TrEMBL record:
This is Uncharacterized protein. Residues 13-41 are annotated as: Disordered. Residues 25-40 have a biased composition (Basic and acidic residues).
Amino acid sequence: MCEFCNMQCDSRRHPSNHRRFCKNNPDREKTKEKREKADDQGGYCSICDIPYKKRSAYH
């Protein structure tokens, strides 16, 4: 159950995903900015010729 809008969630993962983007969450904008910043360019693999995001598991 979401603590901001009391929405019933059907799985264990759903509440955390919903809480992050819930319209009634007062920290939603701050969280959005933080997540966008984490998606910035992180590293570059010269062997694969692939740029990776900061939050990538491969970096």
